[in-house]
């Protein structure tokens, strides 16, 4: 009797199914753990669970009360706006645009200048977040490099940048920290652009901007979409650098959603409310991911 597996798999695959299943177990286990904790976050978001006190053990279901708090009390919407601002200027405008400009410019050069710039980019990317936060805090303090070397000789009074321009400094720090990823991805994408296509556009009279907009960008569109997907999600959920530099302050100037979630869950102790915040963040990230994935689809 004919083996039914031969109708849908090659003989090699049919004989290796146990091995393939075994090899897939770590991935299945990882996905299972993620789903488990996600499910618990969803369940806790409908409760009044707290980190300490009576509600830590004697909690109860409160329906959608925590989700109503997201939109009826101050905190969540302000942090959402701060997060969107931070993500837009830090990732979309900063890292992506700067990474592409550096990749398109430096690919024309070889030698020490390109190597020096690449080392500086990689240094920012590889430095631990705590170290990067310390460097930027020290650089932008009243006695830091900016005031001592730039503003001081010009006769300008010292400025405490982390107090007066906290969000702008954090945005610049994250651009410096994460641009290397976009640079590497765009460099690889530009290296795969057919040179004859660009030369043909040049022969047809297209200038540099026209060649970039009408030839290069459409070719590397999938890479742009992939890069935007990753850096948007990473930046939207980014925590260590901001918390180490400002702790969300001064006031709530740099209180992004991850910091707001941390403070509500562990400083205030409202784990149920914190779970609702995490579920809301998951929904927002999911919507953004679907948007980028639709952009990545090739038109039929």
Automatic annotation (TrEMBL):
Keywords from the named record: Cell membrane, Membrane, Transmembrane, Transmembrane helix, Transport
One GO cellular component term, please give it: plasma membrane
- Location within or outside the cell: Cell membrane
Q: Give one Pfam family.
A: BPD_transp_1
Transmembrane ranges, per UniProt, are 12-43, 80-103, 115-136, 165-186, 224-245, 271-293
Domain (ABC transmembrane type-1) ranges: 80-294
Q: Which InterPro entries match?
A: MetI-like, MetI-like_sf
Q: Which CDD domains match?
A: TM_PBP2 (cd06261)
User: How does the UniProt record describe the way this protein sits in the membrane?
Assistant: Multi-pass membrane protein
Say which family it is in: Belongs to the binding-protein-dependent transport system permease family.
The name of this protein is Carbohydrate ABC transporter membrane protein 1 (CUT1 family)
């Amino acid at each position: 009797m004919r083996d039914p597996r031969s109708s849908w798999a090659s003989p090699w695959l049919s004989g290796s199914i146990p091995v393939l299943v075994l090899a897939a177990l770590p991935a299945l286990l990882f996905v299972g753990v993620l789903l488990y904790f996600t499910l618990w976050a969803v369940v806790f978001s409908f409760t009044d669970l707290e980190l300490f006190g009576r509600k830590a053990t004697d909690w109860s279901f409160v329906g959608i009360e925590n989700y109503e708090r997201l939109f009826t009390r101050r905190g969540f919407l302000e942090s959402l706006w701060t997060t969107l601002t931070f993500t837009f200027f830090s990732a979309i405008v900063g890292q992506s645009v700067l990474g592409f400009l550096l990749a398109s410019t430096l690919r024309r050069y070889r030698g020490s200048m390109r190597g020096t710039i690449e080392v500086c980019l990689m240094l920012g990317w590889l430095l631990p977040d705590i170290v990067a936060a310390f460097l930027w805090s020290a650089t932008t303090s009243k006695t830091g490099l900016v005031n001592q070397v730039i503003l001081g000789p010009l006769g300008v009074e010292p400025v405490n940048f982390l107090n007066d321009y906290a969000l702008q400094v954090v945005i610049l720090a994250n651009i410096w920290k994460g641009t290397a990823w976009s640079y590497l991805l765009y460099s690889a994408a530009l290296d795969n652009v057919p040179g004859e296509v660009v030369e043909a556009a040049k022969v047809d009279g297209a200038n540099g901007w026209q060649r970039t907009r009408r030839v290069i960008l459409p070719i590397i569109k999938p890479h742009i979409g992939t890069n935007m997907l990753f850096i948007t999600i990473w930046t939207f959920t980014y925590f260590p650098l901001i918390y180490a530099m400002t702790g969300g302050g001064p006031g709530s100037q740099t209180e992004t959603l991850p910091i707001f979630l941390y403070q509500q869950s562990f400083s205030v102790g409202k784990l149920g409310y914190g779970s609702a915040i995490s579920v809301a963040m998951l929904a927002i990230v999911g919507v953004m991911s679907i948007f980028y994935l639709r952009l990545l689809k090739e038109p039929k």
